[in-house]
Amino acid sequence: xxxxxxxxxxxxxxxxxxxxxxxxxxxxxxxxxxxxxxxxxxxxxxxxxxxxxxxxxxxxxxxxxxxxxxxxxxxxxxxxxxxxxxxxxxxxxxxxxxxxxxxxxxxxxxxxxxxxxxxxxxxxxxxxxxxxxxxxxxxxxxxxxxxxxxxxxxxxxxxxxxxxxxxxxxxxxxxxxxxxxxxxxxxxxxxxxxxxxxxxxxxxxxxxxxxxxxxxxxxxxxxxxxxxxxxxxxxxxxxxxxxxxxxxxxxxxxxxxxxxxxxxxxxxxxxxxxxxxxxxxxxxxxxxxxxxxxxxxxxxxxxxxxx
Length: 307
What we know:
Blueprint: E1 7-13, E2 16-24, E3 65-70, E4 73-77, H1 79-83, E5 92-94, E6 97-99, E7 109-117, H2 123-136, E8 139-146, E9 149-158, E10 161-167, H3 177-180, H4 190-202, H5 215-228, H6 247-263, H7 290-295
Parallel strand pairs: 1-5
Antiparallel strand pairs: 1-2, 2-7, 3-4, 6-8, 7-10, 8-9, 9-10
């Protein structure tokens, strides 16, 4: 089942307009997640919205947003008042300008989305906008309102659609000077640089995301499987960092280590698993494969009863 669109509206380039929908390009739903429990009973912790002064629980309809002016003074702003902040970008992504990709500082990138035509109409106009951006080898910059906030969005052609990347505003990006000013000015010798370059050349490769494994996520799954199987949990020894005394010696040893690793027998390729799925010795509730889910409905989670 396809995810729901985060936003629907129109994409406009001058007088060319088409209806579009914006979908999240990433997901963290496959990651292991934890609930907070009462250690004594094993029951989940429930959080209630309470009045900070009276301690009484407050109903949802009585909760409004407030801007803090000073310690005890707030300016209340209702949902209707926020919706009345009429911005063109609430319903329309207006392309304001086109820029070179190299001009966009990576620090300004937030998260990616997929932008597609919404419905059966507007595909021609969408294609014209997409191919114009592609042919010009530019990035289109516009504005969109998500979660009651206006964001800058950069549009890039991606296959038959567009990838929209939300960008930060300048006030959200911290200056590097407050962090880098104390870094010492060190003169790197040509010999050190040559050795370091040699290491880089030995480790040169291509960006292939399928090669990456979330080792922490794998360790979490292993921990949960061991606990479900009733196996003892043995703490692993943490690696300790060592001070580098002779930098040139460390660089030379690094080269030797890289060459030995390169000459060693390649490790067996891991068995392929379905995209987004994790291998588990024992299945964790809520993490069943698509095949299992289709075969039968998931059984209810076993309840832990208190004595």
